[in-house]
Amino acid sequence: MKVSARLSKWGMRIYPPLLFQRIWVVRIDKEFRGVTVNVNKSLLNRNYNNSIFGGTIFAAADPFYPLLFHQIFIHKGYNVIAWSKSSEIQYLKPGLTKLQFKIRISNEEVAEAEHILNTVGKYIKPHRIDIYNTNGEICVTVMNEVYLRNLNFVEGK
Questions:
Q1: Which domain of life is it from (predicted)?
Q2: Does residue 96 contact residue 55 with C-beta atoms inside 8 Å?
C-alpha cells in the first residue's frame, strides 16, 4: 500500500509493539530515503541490569529498512513485497540512556536494488544499523538482511 511519509511515521509511532516499548519514530524522510528512531528508556523496557532490554533494541531496528525500501519501490510503481529476512545483533555496551539510530538509503543503493529487481526479481542484501547512546557511543550494531521481491518479474522477459 502506498502511503505518505507522515502517515507512515504516525502509524509506526502508534503501532503497539513499538509504542509500548517506547520506540519513537522521530522522522521519516519525505521520499522514504531515511528514518530517525529513538528508543526511550522507561520502566516498561528496562531489564534486570537497569539497561534497555535487548529485545526492545532489536524490535526497534527490525522493521525500518524493509519499510523504507518497500515504500520507495511502491512509489516508483513497482509491485513488491519486503521483509527482514534475517538479522544479526551485537550488543557492544549496555543501553543505559536513551538510544537513537538513523538510517539513510543512498541513490546508489536504490539503483542497485532496482537493477536487481528488474534482472533477477529478488533483492537480498544486509544493511547495517549502528545504535548510539546520548554520549554518541555505539551501543549496538545490527545487520538487517532485507528481502525484496518484484511480484511482476517474469524471468527471461
A1: Bacteria
A2: no
Report helix, strand or coil for 150: strand
The pairing of beta strand 80-91 with beta strand 23-28: unpaired
Length reported for the chain: 157
- On whether the CB atoms of residues 37 and 64 are closer than 8 A, the answer is yes
Strand, coil or helix: 78: coil
Report the alpha-carbon distance of residue 22 to residue 27 in Å, rounded: 15
Please state, in angstroms and as integers, the Cα–Cα distance from residue 22 to each residue in 28, 37, 100, following that order.
17, 10, 12
Q: For 5-150, which CATH class? A: alpha beta
Residue-wise over 43-80: b if at least 16 C-beta within 10 A, else e? eebbeeeebbbeebbbbbbbbbbbbbbbbbbbeeebeb
Per-residue pLDDT reduced to its tens digit, 12-68: 999 999 999 999 999 999 999 999 999 999 999 999 999 999 999 999 999 999 999
> Which alpha helices (H) appear in 25-130, and where do they start and end?
54-61, 64-75, 107-119
The identity of residue 112, as a single letter, is E
